[in-house]
Amino acid sequence: MYRQKYYIDCSSRPSESVVLCPTVIPFLSNTACSKRKSALCCTNTITPYQNWRFQAIQLQQPDTYVVLKYTVYQRVQEKWKKSFHVTKPLNLNQGLASLDLHGIGIDVGNDYKLLYFLLILEVPRAHRRLEPGIYFYQVVEGRDLKTLAQLRDGVALNDKLQSSLDKLGWFRFENNSWHVVKGQFNIEQAQHVRGEDCKKHKMFFNAEQFVLHVDGDEKEFSKFNLGKLVTEYPYIRAVEIQSRGVNVEHAEGAAMTLTLKTDDKFPPPIFVHHISQFKSFHGLIQLDEESNRFLNLTIESARGTLRGRIFKDESRDQHNEFPFDVRISDSLSYKNSDKIEKEYYYTNVPISFSINSKSYICLYPEGDPNKEQCEWLDYMPTPLKKYSNNHPWHNGKPEIIGDEEQGFVEYLKKILSTIDPRTCLSQNQDNSHPISCLVNLFIGLALALLLLGICTRCIIPLAKWSIFCAKK
């Protein structure tokens, strides 16, 4: 937060300030003042707005992991029995990873044998992922960093060697204190004052990411942008911030090649999979503020893989068909609060930029096109995000120093305010103020005696003479 004050002494430091940058703007217009040169003394006090504090982090090239959940089932008395389960994160930085599962014991007839499994995975990186760069999050004292901190981007940030007032991060908390990098120079360069006369001026602050408050004015001028949450991107499912790293779970991936090898002493494993199915679906076609188009789908009682198609109308013209897939994951499910619980799955599906209106969406389970369901989904566009770069001028009325105000009446008013006992006895004045009060007091008494003499020697006799002449 940027606060502007005016002081007679530019070197004075108010106790409530955090960072003080005094500035003197010379050569103002002398209009409405005496012939002496005018100058404006500004004290800029900078404090954290609403005590907000943000932490910036630099993300480099990420490590890519796939989390593999592997379970071995055994057929016992016409039922499946879980014999072994393991969850392993596998590093895919080299594009290939393997998991050696040996020493797994199962009962085979009357014997207890150890199985040997080798899983080989080949997975390319996701096409859309969080890119390296500078991100930031709000620091809230007393709150858990992992669960409550929210990573943000979409705004220009200063790195540790930059000090631009046009980017977020020019006001920093280091070594238990706040400071502005190259503060005195940057603040003086950013502040522009246009004096209309010596009694009023207009001020302009050439910077971004601040809130301006001028003393004497209740209004605040906000000029900041905190970007957007990373989790608002459709390809990001979740973000967990740790003390020295960030764990990003992507909502999109690439095709995985899985190879399973077993010991030759045992017959090859039997692969069994559930059929794909779903009960119903609904959703919206959304266009976000950055012109990303996607299907926001909620699907009831779904599992497996679902095939979808987008049509412009119910004629299902193949030339206007846009296919897509939905792969159901347990991490996308939730249950409602009805007495009979229903399981739902929600997902965002990227779609073509050519879809700009309400469309006819069809969805069917993989391998069973006869169970296709179709619905009209509304198109909901969000206006483009507006970025404001205007820096309006702000009016101000500086405190006039000395006896520069023009006119006898104005000077008399200043003397009367100076000799006010409440002003003279004020604790906030400097050491020279009592002497100034005493001098102005003598001047005030002299003026009072002069006015009294003029009244008794001139005005009153003249009035008596006028009345006497009128009676004759």
UniProtKB/TrEMBL annotation:
UniProt-listed InterPro entries: Fusogen_EFF/AFF, Fusogen_EFF/AFF_dom3
UniProt GO cellular component terms: cell-cell contact zone
Pfam family, one: EFF-AFF
Keyword Transmembrane helix among record annotations: yes
Top-level taxonomic group: Eukaryota
GO biological process, one term: syncytium formation by plasma membrane fusion
Keyword entries, A-Z: Membrane, Transmembrane, Transmembrane helix
Record-annotated membrane-spanning stretches: 438-463
Gene3D superfamilies, alphabetized: Cell-cell fusogen EFF/AFF, domain 1, Cell-cell fusogen EFF/AFF, domain 3
PANTHER family: CELL FUSION PROTEIN AFF-1, EFF-1A
Descriptive protein name: Uncharacterized protein
Organism in which the protein naturally occurs: Acrobeloides nanus
Lineage: Eukaryota, Metazoa, Ecdysozoa, Nematoda, Chromadorea
